[in-house]
Amino acid sequence: MVKCDLCGEEVYLPFRCSYCGGYYCSKHRLPEFHDCTGLYRGRGTYSTGRTTTDRSYDAYYRPTRRVYAFSNLFRFSERELRDLGIGLLLIVALPFSVGGFMSLPPSIIAGAVGIFAAAFLLHELAHKFAAQRFGYWAEFRLNTFGVMITVMSFFSPLKLVAPGAVLIAGLMYGDDYGKISLAGPLTNIAQAAGFFVVGLLSHNYMSFLMYLGVTINSSLALFNLLPFGLFDGVKVLRWDWRIWLATITVAGILFLCARTLI
């Protein structure tokens, strides 16, 4: 076990900051949570000050908001594109590990692969674009432990999709972090709702694909909205418990309603 350099909590899987080199627990893993002395503070940032008086305060967030001068919407680095590509390959390969999947008609196989790919990719891009919209640096990065969990899912009945996550840098308000965290699950909820509506009007194999779309996206939203650990639900709940409750309820309803399509 390793002790967090900030609070001293002992953790089995510490997070190493790529800027200052320290080891931290899940609460203090981001640079802005442990008063990082690394170089990320000097990467072309400027301060906008406190732009409103009604932002919620959180002990883990700093009162000054910084915006990256080079941050633009839809900006991708070569490393990020590489990590997204690898993560996407892992995701689209996951359905092929399910017994009997290859015996399905080619149209269903292609549709299922597309559903898995969209559920993962749109979720991560929603986090990235939301963070960039607020002015923060944000890029997707593969996580070694997450890749291992995803690969192990190929050989187990329980499928866990967690090859990586969007990393965010910049001093931010608590409600900004909550909104950024909510963006991913909301994207999956929107996809699940769309598949459900189309499924009510579909027949035969299309009904099965729509059922799969609702199930995959609603379960991914529910999984990410869990209110503990490193899940999005922790940040959303810290920001506004009513919004967290509403979104996880909608995701749960969509998950339960999926079976009405088959």
Summary?
This protein is mostly helical. The protein has helices at residues 78-93, 106-133, 144-153, 174-200, 205-224, 232-239, 241-257, and strands at residues 2-3, 10-11, 15-16, 23-24, 45-47, 66-68, 137-142, 164-169.
Radius of gyration: 20 Å
Helix content: 40-55%
Secondary-structure element order, N to C: EEEEEEHHEHEHHHH
* Total of helices: 7
How far apart are the first and last residues' alpha carbons, in Å?
A: 48 Å
- Sequence stretches where pLDDT stays below 50 over 5 or more residues: 39-71
General shape: globular
Taking the sheet with the most strands, its summary is: 2 strands, antiparallel
Chain-wise SSE layout:
Elements (H helix, E strand, L loop, with lengths): L1 E2 L6 E2 L3 E2 L6 E2 L20 E3 L18 E3 L9 H16 L12 H28 L3 E6 L1 H10 L10 E6 L4 H27 L4 H20 L7 H8 L1 H17 L5
Antiparallel strand pairs: 1-2, 3-4, 5-6, 7-8
